[in-house]
Amino acid sequence: MADSYMGKFLLVDLTNETSRTVPTPQWLKDQFVGGKGFGAKLLYDLVPKGVDALSPENVLMFFPGPLTATAAPSMRACAVTKSPLTGTYLDSFFGGRLGPEIKYAGYDGIIIFGKAPKPVYLWINDDQVEIRPAGTIWGTNALEANALIKEEINEPDAMLAAIGQAGENQALFALICCEYNRQAGRGGAGAVMGSKNLKAVAIKGSRLVKVHDPEAFDKACKGACEEIALSAECATYTDGGTSSAVPWSNEIGTLPYKNYYTQSDPQADKIGDEGQKKHLFLGKAACFGCPIRCSQMGAVRTGKYSHFITDIVEYESAALLGSNLDIHDPRAVAHLTKLCDEYGLDSMSAGGVIGFAFEAAERGVIQAPDGVVLAFGNVQGAEYLIKSMAFQEDDLGRLLSQGVKRASAVLGKQTMDYAMHVKGLECPAWGPRGTPGMGLAYMTADRGGCHQRGFMIGYDMGDEYNGEPVEMYQTKGRAGILIELQNFLAGTDALVKCDFSQCGVSPESFAAMLSAATGRQVDEDYFDLLGERIWNQTRMFNVREGFLAKDDTLPRRFVKQVLPDGPHKGHRVSEADMDYMRRDYYNIRGWDEEGRPENVTLQRLGLDKAPVFKERP
Amino acid sequence: MAKTFFIKTNFDLCTGCSLCQLACSQRLLGGYNPHRALLRITHKAENLYHFPTVCNQCENAYCANVCPAKAISRDPETRALVVDRDKCIGCNMCRKYCPIEMVGVDPDLKKSVKCDLCGGDPACVAACPTGALELAYRVVPDEEEEEPNG
Ligand code: SF4
Ligand code: SF4
Ligand code: SF4
User: Fold this and answer.
1) DSSP 3-state assignment of B32?
2) Does pLDDT of A571 surpass 60?
3) Residue in A74, A159, A209, A341 to test binding to B, most B beta-carbons within 10 Å
4) Is the peptide bond before A496 cis (omega within 30 degrees of 0)?
């Protein structure tokens, strides 16, 4: 009977320039489903303890999910590897058209081992897999590489994952550009690709993706689309993507301003939806199979930075390359974001690093090169740093391209007060002083400082949870809520859902689509347990790498410095707050006091005797 | 007077989501793949524009004119040009001469496939969330209403 899996993985060995396929194991499908689930299990099995993330022993994997490439609305894919920035498990999700193409070519995942002797790119056209010399394509930016490769293989419809110069040079927060305007952004997957001498993966496929029960599947997809159409939150994304979060975040006092010195910015509205509608937006674009169409495509038509095409500047980029740097011309922020995309740097980490550098320069800890001004509000300074980090042009660029954690370790102890990262991953743009649940989310996210594994801001601001209003500023009860969110999101990240459609689609609909697609009947609670299994699996990886309670912590500024102004004036997340929430969290998770999953927990989740994936290319 | 139905495309509303192609390939082949659908979406300028292209259900239909097996004829209801798979010999002549490549032999079916307007209730139009595809008709004066292959 048909199911929505393609039945095989593609294993590529770049060292020996060979590839082969292996069947997708049934136990893996049953216990880990796809996407993040496959990534969590296979990274644990394939990458032994202590491997250097930039060595040939690390693997780089791309996984769609069982609903990707079907008519299920808004399904994506992920890149999974060991992060060179944090040393933790890393998954990075991307929308667009690349994920589905992996399945159309016939694969449930692509797993890349080793390191090519010379720069190459991979061209996967159904069963035909070629490792081709990258030649002069090496050295180009991500969009140039995209165009050159499509021309060389003469396939305008192929989909590409490509790195820019930052990935080639192994800047530790380099991204993978999954055309267009879609990025596997966080945690440095692009640096891993660069370390393997792999410029790009081009894919095209002619296979059909079939579902187990087409009639039931069609009904379930229509139901999910209806839920999206009725969802007020999804409607906000249709209207202006995440740009309207800028004024909202400012209003509720979570918007980082000047390297998180404070969490409100008097000029925030200029770079939010209002400013972007005026200066950037022209029309809407959607990821593959998505009715929400959150992309607001546009162009910078006026001013110093015209002319270039830009997608919406998403909340995180607008906040971190805008407010956080005290820059308020949306065209300038779009320009900086586009530079990051082209050179292949994560715009979030870039914003965090530049904010750190501006503060360090203003405090006299680093010296700006001749002719460059490193100060808040200075667009040229930010532009200079982006280029020098991507091209590794000077010592400053090389230092900062390692992220704020390493830079601050070199620059001296006092800079740690304003090095804004968790486990080495620069913080997202939701300052947690005043919203302790969000702080706990950063402390415990599997890839370091991340807001997408459990978004607590609404509850921290007093929304209801299970019919009860949540009390602001309290640490009590936060762990329980966060764990439920993390589990459900990790479970649906196995599909691989989009975070935005997830606001509209109900657990029942996800279950109905998965059941009809695969023939395995699941109910709406299924994702909670699946997610808990996946979450513990990623924790096992991180614990094996030596991450323990001491690492589940927040940057010092959030802990030591109370907010000087704004709605949460006087608030911070103190040591005592962190201690309480961490303990509560470990306790509910069934982890010991160091954050190691207890044996009973692993047994309950079937992780104590899960099979081991032993295939190698 | 007769009415020829066709799908009018509004590229200004198209977001490039491919939901139309998913619906079409599922109906035609029982599985999903936009490259196998009977309409095309061309993505341009880093996704700033998306152009849907659908069969025009031409009044002067080159695909039907060149078919050596006379396998392409008009549906009496919609006047859409429809391939008779029993007659199709799989020579792909239709593809060679359709100006917009909207017809051709499917690799699995080994027969020519083209848009038949889903018999008058187009799945792609129903799936499109933005109104970028519309069912429309043009009025054909009686004297021009010739049968192709006539
Ligand atoms: S397939 Fe081409 S030639 Fe034939 S009716 Fe359609 S657009 Fe015209
Ligand atoms: S009308 Fe039917 S056959 Fe024609 S393109 Fe649309 S879905 Fe395909
Ligand atoms: S469904 Fe509509 S908006 Fe989406 S690609 Fe097709 S024509 Fe464009």
Assistant:
1) strand
2) yes
3) A209
4) yes
Give chain A's length.
Answer: 617
Question: Is residue A288 less than 8 Å (CB to CB) from chain B?
Answer: yes
Q: Would an 8 Å CB–CB cutoff place B140 in contact with chain A?
A: no
Mean pLDDT of A488-512: 95
Which residues of chain A neighbour B104 with C-beta distances below 8 Å?
Answer: none
Nearest alpha carbon, ligand 1 atom 6: B55
- Contact between residue A79 and residue A163 where contact means Cβ atoms under 8 Å apart: no
Q: Which residue has the higher pLDDT, A173 or B146?
A: A173
Q: In what order do the strands lie in the sheet with A295-300?
A: A281-285, A295-300, A308-310
Q: Which residue of B has its CA nearest to A282?
A: B48
Question: Is the peptide bond preceding residue A307 cis, with omega within 30 degrees of 0?
Answer: yes
pLDDT for A364-409, tens place per residue? 999 999 999 999 999 999 999 999 999 998 999 999 999 999 999 9
Assess B36–A contact: CB distance below 8 Å, yes or no: yes
Nearest chain B residue to A2 by CA: give it: B31
Pocket test for ligand 2, best of B8, B118, B121, B125 (most atoms within 8 A of CB): B118
Contact B127 A71 (CB under 8 A): yes
What is the pTM (predicted TM-score) of this model? 0.97
Per-residue pLDDT of A1-55, as tens digits, reads 689 999 999 999 999 999 999 999 999 999 999 999 999 999 999 999 999 999 9
Number of H-type helices and E-type strands within chain B: 4, 8
Q: What CA–CA distance (Å, rounded) separates A33 from A64?
A: 10
Q: How far apart are CA A478 and CA A130, in angstroms?
A: 50
**A44 and A541 in contact (C-beta within 8 Å)?**
yes
Q: What is the pLDDT of residue B1?
A: 84
Q: Note whether A81 contacts B: Cβ–Cβ < 8 A.
A: no
> What's residue B150's pLDDT?
43
| Joined tokens for residue A9 | 């993985």
- Rg for chain B, CA atoms, rounded: 15
Task: Report whether A475 contacts A577 (CB < 8 A).
Answer: yes
Please name which of A391, A404, A402, A357 lies closest in space to residue A376, comparing C-alpha atoms. A357
CA distances to A440, A448, A461, A583 from A480, in Å: 11, 20, 16, 11
Contact A37, A25 (CB under 8 A): no
ipTM over 0.85: yes
Helices A330-343 and A142-153: crossing angle, nearest 10°?
A: 50
Per-residue pLDDT tens over the stretch A66-102: 999 999 999 999 999 999 999 999 999 999 999 999 9
Residues 6+ apart with CB under 8 A from A14: A56, A112, A113, A114, A115, A116, A120, A131, A196, A197, A198
